[in-house]
Specification:
Blueprint (H helix, E strand, L loop, with lengths): L14 E4 L5 E4 L1 H4 L6 E6 L5 E5 L4 E5 L8 E5 L1 H4 L6 E6 L5 E5 L2 E5 L4 E4 L7 E6 L5 E5 L10 E4 L4 E4 L11 E6 L5 E5 L2 E5 L4 E4 L11 E6 L5 E5 L10 E6 L2 E5 L10 E6 L5 E5 L4 E4 L4 E4 L11 E6 L5 E5 L4 E4 L5 E4 L11 E2 L10 E8 L3 E9 L4 E10 L2 E8 L6 E8 L4 E8 L2
Length: 436
Amino acid sequence: MKIKLVFALLLSLLQISKAQNQEWLIFSKNKNSFPSNNISSIKIDSRKNFWIGTMDSGLVKLDLSKGISSLSWTVYNIPRNNFPSNTIYSITADNLNNLWITSGNGLIKLSESKIDHNNFNIPIDFLCIAIDSIGNKWIGTGNPLFQIGAGLIKYDNALPVIYNKSNSGLPSDFVSALLIDKHNKKWIGTNKGLAVYDDSNWILYNSANTNLPSDFIYFIFVDSKNNLWIGTGYALIVDNKAGLVKYANNSWTIYYVSSGLPVNYVTCAAEDKFGNLWFGTWGGGLVKYDGTNWKVYNSSNSQLPNNVILSIAIDYNDNKWIGTYGGGLAIYRENGVIISVEENYLSLPKFYELKQNYPNPFNPETIIEFSIPEQTHVKLKIYDILGREITTLIDKELNPGNYKKVWYAYNLPSGIYFCRLQTNNYSEIKKLVLQK
């Protein structure tokens, strides 16, 4: 069969290093001298940097440039570089790739050139942060143990404005969670209910005027369908009034252990590219929810190092980064963890080669490996059985080396596809079978 080739689409390169098909990777103090076992927050910025906040050892930046087998890290903390605090609660980034970090000693701004710190003369922990559409930073304050705080801070890089229960619609000065939605509404979690502020008016939701199971709001998350997910209850103060709440179309749906959760205390959430929701819990491990079924991963049925989870993030390769309290950092991915790197010089090939993809047949993703012995322009494209171009995986000048690329075909029908590797001096085609 003759395949008609059309050369048009330019996409960016992602060379993939697969960690020996391991579904779980664990980083802890005892296992590999990771700086902390208590991971409070995880942020993957737009430059694909991985930032790990800890409860006791400061901020950690992971270096994945040489793959997972040579993972290294840089630590920002009090003894190393006069970091303001070793207790990190949350991390976010602005559109200039500056990091904004809440800590046990105020707000920290980390840019490429320096570290700035400001606690606005408020001697209490800064717990959470969100950035609105015009760049204002909204910061929640409070002492997690005693549930006292200084309210909500709005910071425009000049002067702070403080909202508290005396001058606003906040029901409490203890602010534990923040989310700013696509309409620029501020959803503010406190220990006395959920407040919503649209820059003019305040609305309060609590267990008295809704069916929220608890007034303590632990986290707020919005999924791709604009549903709000709210973790309620506080595990450190057992009141048996906890549950996971879904808020959609002005209705509240509550999920408990009886719904499929391992425990009622849910601490964090993330969504993968297939629309599955992943929840961390306090004492019940990790939960995957596909809209119908709940699947629980814990220290008994998986390699999860601890069942108390404080944070979760999902990267561009669908790896789940899981921050535990007591067990360190876990990375999980069905069918094997995949870590992106730019180049692989470990074993320079002598010949051009396009290897057969694996697995094959596959559903819905497969790995394509190829080798180039010299610097050259590389095009790696996928075609259907009629010769129509489906996607361009690579169109870029590459150095000599061995490369891997994951092709995600979850939105395509079953059938036969072709992968073509073309360089200045070489061309090869392999048949791929998508079987759903």
